[in-house]
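Archive entry. Fields below.
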Amino acid sequence: MNLTLKVWRQKNASQKGELVTYPVSDISPDMSFLEMFDVLNDQLVTDGKEPIAFDHDCREGICGMCSMHINGHAHGPKDQVTTCQLHMRSFKDGDTIVVEPWRAAAFPVVKDLVVDRSSFDRIIAKGGFISVNTGNAKDANNLPIPKVDADKAFEAAACIGCGACVATCKNSSAMLFVSAKVAQLSLLPQGKAEASQRVLNMVAQMDEEGFGSCTNTGACEVECPKGISIQNIAIMNKEYLKATVVSEQEAQ
Amino acid sequence: MSKLDSKIPEGPLDKKWEKYKSSVPLVNPANKRSLEIIVVGSGLAGGAAAASLAEMGYKVKVFCFQDSPRRAHSIAAQGGINAAKNYQNDGDSVHRLFYDTIKGGDYRAREANVHRLAEVSGNIIDQCVAQGVPLAREYGGMLSNRSFGGTQVQRTFYAAGQTGQQLLLGAYSALQRQVGLGSVQMFARHEMLEVVTIDGKARGIIARNLINGKLERHFGHAVLLCTGGYGNVFFLSTNAMGSNVTAAWKAHKKGAFFANPCYTQIHPTCIPVSGDHQSKLTLMSESLRNDGRIWVPKKQEDAAAIREGRKKGNEIAEEDRDYFLERRYPAFGNLVPRDVASRAAKERCDAGFGVNKTGEAVYLDFASNMKYKYGKQVATMKGIANPTEEQLHAFGKDVVKEKYGNLFDMYKQITGEDPYEVPMMIYPAVHYTMGGVWVDYNLMTTVPGLYALGEANFSDHGANRLGASALMQGLADGYFVIPYTIGAYLAGDIRTKAIPTDHEAFVAAEKEVQERIDKLFAIKGTKPVDYFHRKLGKIIWDKCGMARNEAGLKQAIADVQQLQKEFWSDVRIPGEANELNPELEKAGRVADFLELGELMCVDALDRKESCGGHFREESAETSGEQEGEAKRDDVNYMYVAAWEYKGPNTFELHKEELKYEVIKVSQRSYK
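PREDICTED_STRUCTURE:
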């Protein structure tokens, strides 16, 4: 396959970037999208040019590090697939492909296609956990959890924290990411004790990071490579409302 | 007299850890606040250790090269985690898990460490459930289990095919909680490039901020390396692209012995290589061997027809299929340990029975269990007495989907074939490294104050790791071992004040790192880093992979040394040092892999026996029931090979004799 790539190049956070055109040839349909970038980068290095910086690590769709916006779609055109698991057989010979970084105020560009997603870590640090110290746990089977609840919690916990939901949202809202963690922990009995504090703190941090509001367009769910459901947002809204009422009562 | 003191506590094996815990010196809370610990790596071992130590009151700094600690490659582990809970009432016990692990490791692991691992295994499950890790459950609300290779009980806990992800996110959440409380300082996108030693003790690290390229000095009373394995020495492996040996190798060059580097695990069930562009290999969880049957055609002409695209696997009649694992190992069948399964697949492919274009693939077939096990069960539940083949397939497919859905999806995405309809094709690939930094019972290396946890150390898996044991070991080391054993060292260090980083040792270490970076840029050669990495991978895979022999290893050592010279005269690093520069990062890592690759071959050459993942062609059974199987030599090789760095291309061997007090050493048979 022969393709034309238009790739966002930006030296660092403070300089302006631009789309640069690169022709690539002899691409096998069995290659992954990132392997095509490897080929291009090796060529750039051999030609004495600067290779394109992009984030990636596991290349099996689970670490959440890869993050390209391809032809206007986070992680490219296929449903429920990360960029590293997108294969060139999903494109046609002669295609022009535009590749950009995630675009969101809370995800500033570091270089080329690499962005800073540490805002996600700071949100988790505010409450995305159950406060249990090592060594204090009782026997795991002392707490039966209905399979339905456990399965729902697992589905929410499958979020890989890649940020595609933010990148695809016209408001750059992080509601899907935050709600997946809130829902996972509030569905489980272990997580109920600090449910109110958790949702209040995480939402406050989300706002502070500069993520936009949710206007229920549902784009996040469509683009999520792991199929995280927007039902989680409904669960979080319920938890938030409950927590606000409780905290108002406590204040009185 | 050996320099190696494993510091195994006295007393009967099953009482050692209990006694140790109640007699190890403690550090009082006020002192903990002034003791600083550096943790390098944020996977299961590092994340768990950092969170637990911070909860205890120590000041902790964590470093990882990824953009977030949640990306560590533990996240990609699929199948499960072992624990001796005996929830299935199938006769499991701490002793049995201990025994299976020692036997699985082909009697080359340390008894005391493995027993401790088995003892704390149950606590791990309790801890993770308390953290909200959504492990798989039965309808009654109890935790579910499945079987893994090398065992005859069901002791593996799991979360679909994403167990590593869920356990890592549990450790990550515990870690982030401590970050939020201010007890852990997190340094993401930082790579450790040197250990700083003062008066022979580890006292800190030099790390490179990967965003701006600045070298930073960080002090710690102790340094924990939780940096995973070195499988990427093979270029193609199931490791993440960034997984590397650099931290461990720098420690090695600063005096930490490197143990059993030749013990690498080739995992039997990976997606076969599709072409030269391949950048990594993808594992299909071993748990698939619960329900998948491995086979190749009985007739070479059928295999040839499949390779040439004239026939499909589905068209081969039942009587013309060779279920070679079931044939050779009737007692364990498709669930033999990984090393055994991998070699058996290679043997069939080498003999001309491989089933893909390259001839390097065997089938992993779910059709019979899907239809006749699960399909029938569902049909019976639905009250259908004479279900059609189509009904059985449809019913069974739903069950298989629930168990392995994400793996099947991933397979389809990568290969373009639907494994619900056609058998999967698999081939062995590098997956895990049992060797690693030598540690004593306290997990301390030969450098005082420097520890190695998880896959980075060598201690628990001997010459072969059983499935679902890596997650167990990483979390055991992080949550339940290091919080105790580090006290033994730090209790004696409470009077040491934090050493300012303008100390000459920090200055010298930083200078060393800077000079190395300058040297790499100064080469201005013609070839990108990957060119050398691919070449190295091919040498090691061909000569120090699934089968090794003396002539091949000697050749490999010469080839690797030659490649080292080429690298240092012809690599090209674009860009600058003071910016995000992935090529520079890769170059540093590949330079270390080039040195480690040599040591792997040196170690493999020294060990003239076959054991576990290390198969020396000269050492195989020549007759009887075990003909062709690996032949161990307990008289001459029952030791841990710990290598000391003595300067470029020079390594000195130290032996730690292995003593088996409880287990009767015997030939490992899965027949």
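CURATOR_NOTE: The CA atoms of residues 8 and 507 of chain B lie 37 Å apart.
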